[in-house]
Amino acid sequence: MTADVIDEATGAGEAPAADKIRAMRERINEIDQAIIDLWLERASLSQEVGKTRMASGGTRLVLAREREIIEHFRNALGPDGTQVALLLLRSGRGPL
Q1: Whole-prediction pTM value?
Q2: DSSP assigned state of 68
Q3: Is the pLDDT confidence value at 5 over 80?
């Protein structure tokens, strides 16, 4: 492969770069699957927490806990962490 021939799947102009990109994308795919699996597990656990809390006469939500989670994600990921936390919270409790 020469620099004027672009690998369509990777966008690379050289074979070694295309191979490296393929390897990195394979790892990205593995990470993505782990994130999906953990997201689903977290949502399930969060739903169980809510059911257990309400069955015991407690409240549907604990806003202090939600603020703690949002702050944790914001500190770890910056401004985008807030959005990630809000999505995680919504997936665990459903829409308000």
Answers
A1: 0.82
A2: H
A3: no
